[in-house]
Amino acid sequence: MDPLALTLANLLVGNPAGAPALEVTAMGPELVFEKDTTLALTGAQLGATLDGEPLATDQAHRAQAGQQLRFGARARGARAYLAVAGGFGLSAQSFRDSVATDVEAGLGGLGGRPLKAGDVLELEPQPPFQARAIHDVWEHGYQPLDVVRFIPEQGSRLPPEALEQFVAARFRISPRSNRVGYRLEGPALPTETGGLQLSEPVAPGTIQVPPDGQPIVLMADRQTTGGYPRVGHVIRADVPRLAQLWLGDSVSFRAVTLDEARQASRELQTWLEKEARQP
Q1: Which of 63, 96, 130, 276 has the fewest CB atoms found within 10 Å of its own CB?
Q2: Residues 161, 268: one domain?
Protein backbone atom coordinates (compact mmCIF):
# COMPACT_ATOMS: atom_id res chain seq x y z
CA MET A 1 0.00 0.00 0.00
CA ASP A 2 2.84 2.41 0.86
CA PRO A 3 5.80 1.83 -1.47
CA LEU A 4 7.78 4.68 0.08
CA ALA A 5 7.70 3.21 3.59
CA LEU A 6 8.57 -0.24 2.20
CA THR A 7 11.56 1.20 0.33
CA LEU A 8 12.80 3.07 3.40
CA ALA A 9 12.49 0.05 5.70
CA ASN A 10 14.55 -2.06 3.31
CA LEU A 11 17.09 0.71 2.82
CA LEU A 12 17.69 0.87 6.57
CA VAL A 13 18.60 -2.83 6.82
CA GLY A 14 20.64 -2.95 3.61
CA ASN A 15 18.07 -4.72 1.42
CA PRO A 16 16.98 -4.00 -2.16
CA ALA A 17 13.99 -1.61 -2.21
CA GLY A 18 11.45 -4.33 -3.00
CA ALA A 19 12.68 -7.07 -0.65
CA PRO A 20 9.91 -8.99 1.17
CA ALA A 21 8.81 -7.22 4.37
CA LEU A 22 5.78 -7.26 6.65
CA GLU A 23 2.97 -4.72 6.28
CA VAL A 24 1.31 -3.97 9.62
CA THR A 25 -2.11 -2.35 9.37
CA ALA A 26 -3.37 -0.29 12.32
CA MET A 27 -2.92 -3.08 14.87
CA GLY A 28 0.34 -5.00 15.01
CA PRO A 29 1.26 -8.58 15.86
CA GLU A 30 3.54 -9.90 18.59
CA LEU A 31 6.80 -11.28 17.20
CA VAL A 32 9.61 -13.16 18.93
CA PHE A 33 13.08 -13.13 17.41
CA GLU A 34 14.71 -16.54 17.65
CA LYS A 35 18.15 -15.18 16.73
CA ASP A 36 19.91 -11.82 16.69
CA THR A 37 18.22 -9.83 13.92
CA THR A 38 18.73 -6.47 12.23
CA LEU A 39 15.34 -4.79 11.75
CA ALA A 40 13.71 -1.47 10.92
CA LEU A 41 10.21 -0.05 11.21
CA THR A 42 8.88 2.73 8.96
CA GLY A 43 5.53 4.29 8.12
CA ALA A 44 2.85 4.59 10.78
CA GLN A 45 3.52 5.11 14.48
CA LEU A 46 1.87 2.08 16.08
CA GLY A 47 3.41 2.17 19.55
CA ALA A 48 6.09 -0.44 18.85
CA THR A 49 8.19 -1.74 21.75
CA LEU A 50 11.07 -4.21 21.99
CA ASP A 51 10.94 -6.02 25.33
CA GLY A 52 8.81 -3.17 26.64
CA GLU A 53 11.14 -0.37 25.52
CA PRO A 54 9.88 2.06 22.83
CA LEU A 55 11.25 1.22 19.39
CA ALA A 56 11.95 4.27 17.23
CA THR A 57 10.85 4.23 13.62
CA ASP A 58 13.03 5.19 10.63
CA GLN A 59 16.24 3.69 11.99
CA ALA A 60 17.92 0.29 12.13
CA HIS A 61 17.88 -1.75 15.36
CA ARG A 62 19.44 -5.01 16.51
CA ALA A 63 17.06 -7.36 18.29
CA GLN A 64 18.67 -10.04 20.44
CA ALA A 65 17.55 -13.66 20.40
CA GLY A 66 14.46 -14.06 22.59
CA GLN A 67 13.38 -10.43 22.48
CA GLN A 68 9.74 -9.64 21.71
CA LEU A 69 8.37 -6.96 19.40
CA ARG A 70 4.91 -5.72 20.29
CA PHE A 71 2.65 -2.95 19.02
CA GLY A 72 0.36 -0.67 20.99
CA ALA A 73 -1.98 2.20 20.17
CA ARG A 74 -1.99 3.81 16.73
CA ALA A 75 -0.65 7.36 17.06
CA ARG A 76 -0.07 8.43 13.45
CA GLY A 77 -0.66 6.91 10.04
CA ALA A 78 -2.27 3.60 9.17
CA ARG A 79 0.44 1.18 8.01
CA ALA A 80 3.88 0.33 9.36
CA TYR A 81 6.50 -1.73 7.54
CA LEU A 82 8.87 -4.16 9.25
CA ALA A 83 11.98 -5.14 7.31
CA VAL A 84 14.76 -7.49 8.43
CA ALA A 85 18.20 -7.89 6.90
CA GLY A 86 17.90 -10.32 3.99
CA GLY A 87 14.09 -10.03 3.86
CA PHE A 88 11.42 -12.64 4.56
CA GLY A 89 11.77 -14.36 1.20
CA LEU A 90 12.79 -17.77 2.58
CA SER A 91 9.28 -18.32 3.97
CA ALA A 92 7.33 -16.62 1.19
CA GLN A 93 5.68 -18.28 -1.78
CA SER A 94 6.43 -16.66 -5.13
CA PHE A 95 3.87 -16.10 -7.89
CA ARG A 96 5.03 -14.51 -11.14
CA ASP A 97 8.25 -13.33 -9.50
CA SER A 98 6.44 -11.65 -6.60
CA VAL A 99 5.97 -12.77 -3.00
CA ALA A 100 3.33 -10.14 -2.26
CA THR A 101 0.25 -11.59 -0.58
CA ASP A 102 -3.03 -11.44 -2.51
CA VAL A 103 -5.60 -12.52 0.08
CA GLU A 104 -8.53 -12.50 -2.35
CA ALA A 105 -6.74 -14.86 -4.75
CA GLY A 106 -4.90 -16.81 -2.04
CA LEU A 107 -1.53 -16.21 -3.71
CA GLY A 108 1.95 -15.31 -2.52
CA GLY A 109 3.25 -14.66 0.97
CA LEU A 110 2.59 -17.37 3.53
CA GLY A 111 -0.18 -19.47 1.98
CA GLY A 112 -1.78 -16.40 0.41
CA ARG A 113 -3.19 -15.27 3.77
CA PRO A 114 -2.46 -12.84 6.61
CA LEU A 115 -0.11 -14.11 9.30
CA LYS A 116 -1.66 -15.92 12.26
CA ALA A 117 -0.56 -17.02 15.71
CA GLY A 118 2.12 -19.69 15.58
CA ASP A 119 3.53 -18.79 12.16
CA VAL A 120 7.31 -19.05 11.87
CA LEU A 121 9.23 -16.92 9.37
CA GLU A 122 12.70 -18.14 8.44
CA LEU A 123 15.42 -15.48 8.19
CA GLU A 124 18.55 -15.23 6.11
CA PRO A 125 21.92 -15.29 7.94
CA GLN A 126 22.22 -11.90 9.60
CA PRO A 127 25.14 -9.63 8.65
CA PRO A 128 27.00 -7.52 11.23
CA PHE A 129 24.83 -4.68 12.49
CA GLN A 130 25.23 -1.32 10.79
CA ALA A 131 23.56 1.73 12.34
CA ARG A 132 21.43 3.65 9.86
CA ALA A 133 18.77 6.33 10.25
CA ILE A 134 16.58 8.39 7.95
CA HIS A 135 15.57 11.86 9.05
CA ASP A 136 12.43 13.94 8.51
CA VAL A 137 10.55 11.15 6.71
CA TRP A 138 7.07 12.50 7.39
CA GLU A 139 8.08 16.02 6.39
CA HIS A 140 9.37 14.81 3.01
CA GLY A 141 6.86 12.11 2.12
CA TYR A 142 3.59 12.69 3.94
CA GLN A 143 2.91 16.36 4.63
CA PRO A 144 0.30 17.64 4.60
CA LEU A 145 -1.32 14.25 5.25
CA ASP A 146 -4.86 15.42 4.55
CA VAL A 147 -4.24 17.00 1.11
CA VAL A 148 -3.58 14.70 -1.85
CA ARG A 149 -2.51 15.92 -5.31
CA PHE A 150 -4.05 14.49 -8.46
CA ILE A 151 -4.02 14.97 -12.23
CA PRO A 152 -7.51 15.63 -13.66
CA GLU A 153 -8.71 13.11 -16.25
CA GLN A 154 -8.39 14.38 -19.79
CA GLY A 155 -11.60 13.82 -21.78
CA SER A 156 -13.51 12.74 -18.69
CA ARG A 157 -17.03 11.47 -19.28
CA LEU A 158 -18.20 13.32 -16.19
CA PRO A 159 -19.93 16.71 -16.41
CA PRO A 160 -17.49 19.66 -16.16
CA GLU A 161 -18.89 20.67 -12.78
CA ALA A 162 -17.89 17.28 -11.32
CA LEU A 163 -14.22 18.28 -11.24
CA GLU A 164 -15.03 21.65 -9.67
CA GLN A 165 -17.11 20.00 -6.96
CA PHE A 166 -14.49 17.32 -6.34
CA VAL A 167 -11.73 19.88 -5.75
CA ALA A 168 -13.94 22.03 -3.53
CA ALA A 169 -15.14 19.14 -1.36
CA ARG A 170 -13.70 17.49 1.73
CA PHE A 171 -14.18 13.74 1.97
CA ARG A 172 -14.05 11.12 4.69
CA ILE A 173 -12.47 7.67 4.24
CA SER A 174 -15.44 5.30 4.51
CA PRO A 175 -15.39 2.28 6.86
CA ARG A 176 -16.22 0.25 3.72
CA SER A 177 -12.75 0.97 2.33
CA ASN A 178 -10.12 -1.73 1.88
CA ARG A 179 -6.90 -2.53 0.01
CA VAL A 180 -8.80 -2.60 -3.29
CA GLY A 181 -10.10 0.94 -2.99
CA TYR A 182 -10.83 3.81 -0.64
CA ARG A 183 -14.48 4.80 -0.76
CA LEU A 184 -14.92 8.52 -0.13
CA GLU A 185 -17.91 9.91 1.73
CA GLY A 186 -18.90 13.46 0.86
CA PRO A 187 -20.93 15.47 -1.64
CA ALA A 188 -22.20 13.26 -4.47
CA LEU A 189 -20.58 14.22 -7.76
CA PRO A 190 -22.83 14.57 -10.83
CA THR A 191 -22.75 11.90 -13.54
CA GLU A 192 -24.34 11.95 -17.01
CA THR A 193 -23.72 8.40 -18.24
CA GLY A 194 -25.34 6.56 -15.38
CA GLY A 195 -21.88 6.07 -13.90
CA LEU A 196 -20.78 3.51 -16.49
CA GLN A 197 -18.45 3.42 -19.50
CA LEU A 198 -16.34 0.94 -21.43
CA SER A 199 -13.67 -0.63 -19.20
CA GLU A 200 -10.19 0.87 -19.40
CA PRO A 201 -6.91 0.11 -17.61
CA VAL A 202 -6.58 1.52 -14.10
CA ALA A 203 -3.59 2.24 -11.86
CA PRO A 204 -2.91 2.89 -8.17
CA GLY A 205 -4.60 6.21 -7.43
CA THR A 206 -7.20 6.14 -10.23
CA ILE A 207 -10.25 8.04 -8.94
CA GLN A 208 -13.50 6.51 -10.20
CA VAL A 209 -17.01 7.90 -9.79
CA PRO A 210 -19.72 5.18 -9.59
CA PRO A 211 -23.43 5.87 -10.17
CA ASP A 212 -24.00 7.09 -6.58
CA GLY A 213 -21.49 9.93 -7.16
CA GLN A 214 -19.28 8.91 -4.21
CA PRO A 215 -15.68 8.63 -5.52
CA ILE A 216 -13.51 5.54 -5.12
CA VAL A 217 -9.71 5.81 -5.13
CA LEU A 218 -8.19 2.55 -6.32
CA MET A 219 -5.37 1.18 -4.18
CA ALA A 220 -2.82 -1.67 -4.16
CA ASP A 221 -5.20 -4.63 -4.65
CA ARG A 222 -7.28 -2.93 -7.32
CA GLN A 223 -8.57 -4.70 -10.41
CA THR A 224 -6.71 -4.22 -13.70
CA THR A 225 -9.55 -2.47 -15.55
CA GLY A 226 -12.55 -0.39 -14.55
CA GLY A 227 -15.73 0.84 -16.17
CA TYR A 228 -16.67 3.83 -14.02
CA PRO A 229 -15.92 7.35 -15.32
CA ARG A 230 -12.85 8.92 -13.75
CA VAL A 231 -12.26 12.34 -12.32
CA GLY A 232 -8.49 11.98 -12.19
CA HIS A 233 -5.45 10.10 -10.90
CA VAL A 234 -3.53 10.59 -7.64
CA ILE A 235 0.08 11.42 -8.48
CA ARG A 236 2.69 8.74 -7.77
CA ALA A 237 4.44 10.85 -5.11
CA ASP A 238 1.21 11.07 -3.08
CA VAL A 239 0.11 7.42 -3.19
CA PRO A 240 2.08 6.80 0.06
CA ARG A 241 0.34 9.79 1.65
CA LEU A 242 -3.05 8.33 0.77
CA ALA A 243 -2.04 4.87 2.04
CA GLN A 244 -1.34 6.33 5.49
CA LEU A 245 -4.89 7.64 5.90
CA TRP A 246 -7.15 5.54 8.08
CA LEU A 247 -10.88 4.87 8.22
CA GLY A 248 -12.71 8.04 9.23
CA ASP A 249 -9.83 10.37 8.31
CA SER A 250 -10.69 13.37 6.17
CA VAL A 251 -8.96 14.32 2.95
CA SER A 252 -9.20 16.88 0.19
CA PHE A 253 -7.69 16.83 -3.31
CA ARG A 254 -5.66 19.44 -5.17
CA ALA A 255 -5.39 19.39 -8.96
CA VAL A 256 -1.88 19.65 -10.44
CA THR A 257 -0.38 19.43 -13.91
CA LEU A 258 1.62 16.54 -15.31
CA ASP A 259 4.78 18.66 -15.04
CA GLU A 260 4.06 19.32 -11.36
CA ALA A 261 3.51 15.60 -10.78
CA ARG A 262 6.82 14.76 -12.42
CA GLN A 263 8.60 17.41 -10.37
CA ALA A 264 7.14 15.99 -7.15
CA SER A 265 8.41 12.51 -8.10
CA ARG A 266 11.86 13.89 -8.93
CA GLU A 267 12.08 15.71 -5.59
CA LEU A 268 11.09 12.57 -3.68
CA GLN A 269 13.58 10.46 -5.64
CA THR A 270 16.36 12.99 -5.05
CA TRP A 271 15.70 12.88 -1.31
CA LEU A 272 15.67 9.06 -1.34
CA GLU A 273 18.97 8.89 -3.20
CA LYS A 274 20.52 11.34 -0.75
CA GLU A 275 19.37 9.20 2.20
CA ALA A 276 20.66 6.04 0.51
CA ARG A 277 24.16 7.54 0.43
CA GLN A 278 24.16 8.20 4.16
CA PRO A 279 26.26 5.76 6.27
Answers
A1: 96
A2: yes
Please report, for residues 80, 83, 137, 279, the alpha-carbon distance to residue 275 in angstroms, rounded to integers and kept in the order given: 19, 17, 10, 9
> pLDDT: is 164 or 140 the higher one?
164
Residues 71 and 165 in one domain: no
Distance CA 90, CA 68 (A): 21
- Which pLDDT tens digit goes with each residue over 64-101? 999 999 999 999 999 999 999 999 988 888 888 888 89
In this structure, the answer to whether residues 239 and 167 fall within a common structural domain is: yes
Q: pTM of the entire structure?
A: 0.93
Give the pLDDT score at 254: 97
CATH number at residue 160: 2.40.100.10
Residue 101 lies in a domain: no
The domain total for the chain is 2
Residues 176 and 257 in one domain: yes
- Report the candidate in 243, 16, 55 with the shortest Cα–Cα distance to residue 7: 16
